[in-house]
């Protein structure tokens, strides 16, 4: 059973948990808009952390600040490395919210998944047999081998999400950042993604996942973070998602009921 302490994760292989994401006091301003204010959070190996907050609460901004793709005050360490180093070393894989991805880009599904291997390639930038095998295995695990030749934009929404998760699988990243991977996906894709995330978690990865699916969060995540441009609360999902906390985060209880 998982405890409700700050670092509640017991990994299945009983290895001591490692701090894979340490984000401290992240502040992001877009001109006049303060999208993120002093947000701190951590994710350990063997932990799925659910990021919850209403539209505009800064979830996507937090992912971008962690990846170092938007200017932020504060400090981020990914497996002890700066975001730039971590990206170079392939330690982190980021699946942006669909709206942030250019699907007209002329690359195939296999190309997208192969990008997960780029950090490992030598100066020739050529995929070796082991890279191709890792790409095939990742495609197989998300059931996209048959569609590997398709241009990425010619997949359905759920299939696209699976393609980007496959890129993270092929990469073997220690930390996965998934911005609303369940938005617009059907039950089959969702079940496949959840099962993959659990396998990765059990193999020692850390996962930070934003979702609006509050009803299923306690089942999926080991920890939860409630965001309203600042971190309101973090800890065990059942406690974080208590009605009074949801009212603070959303101004109402999105799960229904009287709220407080
Ligand atoms: N490039 C930008 N320029 C100016 N303001 C921005 C920009 N990106 C986001 N914002 C603003 O920053 C705030 C946080 O946005 P963000 O996209 O991080 O929210 P979110 O929690 O991901 O929302 P959603 O659930 O709708 O995806 C919002 O007020 C948004 O309007
Ligand atoms: Mg967002």
Automatic annotation (TrEMBL):
SUPFAM superfamilies: P-loop containing nucleoside triphosphate hydrolases
InterPro entries registered for this protein in UniProt: AAA+_ATPase (IPR003593), ABC_transporter-like_ATP-bd (IPR003439), ABC_transporter-like_CS (IPR017871), Metal_Ion_Import_ABC (IPR050153), P-loop_NTPase (IPR027417)
Keywords attached to this entry: ATP-binding, Nucleotide-binding, Transport
Pfam families membership: ABC_tran (PF00005)
Keyword NADP: no
SMART domains for this protein: AAA
Domain ABC transporter: 21-254
The keyword Nucleotide-binding is annotated on this UniProt entry: yes
CDD domains hit by this protein: ABC_Metallic_Cations
GO molecular function: ATP binding
Domain of life (superkingdom): Bacteria
Family of this protein: Belongs to the ABC transporter superfamily.
Record's protein name: Metal ABC transporter ATP-binding protein
Biological classification of the source: Bacteria, Bacillati, Actinomycetota, Actinomycetes, Micrococcales
